[in-house]
Amino acid sequence: MCSIVLLQSTMLMLQTLCKPFLTILNSCLMSMLRTLNPHLPL
């Protein structure tokens, strides 16, 4: 029981840590795509 709670809290922490990084990465990818292909409807 305790290990499940620990795992859940660890996953939550990881998600919280990764979310800003993923957002930054996503915006970088989108701007790269726009620069490479300006005709893409993004």
Architecture blueprint of SSEs:
Layout: H1 2-36
Signal peptide: 1-18
Keywords: Signal
List keywords for this structure.
42 residues, mainly alpha, 83% helix, 0% strand
Task: Summarize the structure in words.
By secondary structure, this protein is mainly α. The chain has one helix at 2-36. The protein is rod-shaped. The model has no long low-confidence stretch (mean pLDDT 88).
Could you report the average pLDDT, rounded to the nearest whole number? 88
Beta-strand share of residues: under 5%
Shape: rod-shaped
Oligomer: single chain
N→C terminal distance: 46 Å
Summarize the biggest pleated sheet: none
Structural class: mainly alpha
Low-confidence sequence ranges: none
**Helix and strand run:** H
Gyration radius from CA atoms, angstroms: 17 Å
Helix share bin? over 70%
What is the count of DSSP helices, taking H or I runs of 4+ residues?
1
Strand runs, count = 0
Brief account:
Helices cover 83% and strands 0% of the residues.
